Amino acid sequence: MNSQMPVCVPELTATILLVEDDRDIADMLSEMLVQNGYTVVSAQSGAEMDRVLRRQSFDLVVLDVMLPGEDGFSICRRLRAEARTPIIMLTAVATDVDRIVGLEFGADDYVTKPFNSRELLARIKSLLRRASYGSERPERPSAMSFDGWRIDPVSRTLVDRAGSQIFMTTAEFDLLVALCLNAGRVLTREQLLSLTHAGVAGPVERSVDVHISRIRQKIEPNPKDPSLIKTVRLGGYLFTPRVEAS
Known about the structure:
Largest sheet: 5 strands, parallel
CATH architecture of the largest domain: 3-Layer(aba) Sandwich
Pfam family, one: Trans_reg_C
Shape: globular
Mean pLDDT: 84
Low-confidence stretches: 2-12, 133-138, 198-204
Domain OmpR/PhoB-type: 141-241
Number of helices: 8
Number of domains: 2
Strand order of the largest sheet: 2-1-3-4-5
Oligomer: single chain
Domain Response regulatory: 15-128
Strand content: 15-25%
Number of strands: 12
CATH class of the largest domain: Alpha Beta
CATH superfamily of the largest domain: Response regulator
Protein name: Response regulator transcription factor
Keywords: DNA-binding, Phosphoprotein, Transcription, Transcription regulation, Two-component regulatory system
CATH topology of the largest domain: Rossmann fold
Helix content: 25-40%
Radius of gyration: 18 Å
Order of helices and strands: EHEHEHEHEHEEEHEHHEEE
Distance between the termini: 47 Å
């Protein structure tokens, strides 16, 4: 990790839960985040995290994969089943498989150890901005309808044909909004990363594929033969439905 602490005027005010059993890493991250205007609470295990969550809620979770007892993947899956709080996973294994497993379990982003402090800080700011915790919120598009579905970027809700709200992670929701705003246009993975990461370099391109797969499971009549989100060979993805203001 980069030992030089990045310090800047905070753009966002948020409370962050750091789940990390390595004291040195936890202390370094806590110091960096506090210096940048965030409130930080630390936990060293899933059990300790559960006790903390019973007392308060958080705007973002930084979660290590390798923890004593319950591992980070299992914890991520539990957290995602209960809330849409943004989750950044820290992994010491720099393989696509390890990263993709975390994304499949509902993580919004990941950072590989050893990491650059500035990169992690940028990713945290990006996720918080996308999750609408910024003090200055950019103008957002109005609600949209497609194929019987309704998506509202302001309330960040997706409602199906029966009127039921469908749970989505921050990354999934932002990808679907980007697709709706560009319906009928092929978007490359690089364009989708740019549109959903506020200009900050995002995860590897394959993470887009994982999130698209999860979105298909939620909105496609037949996820194995998708009709709403088409894969364009050597191109990217095409959102086929007609999208209208709702």
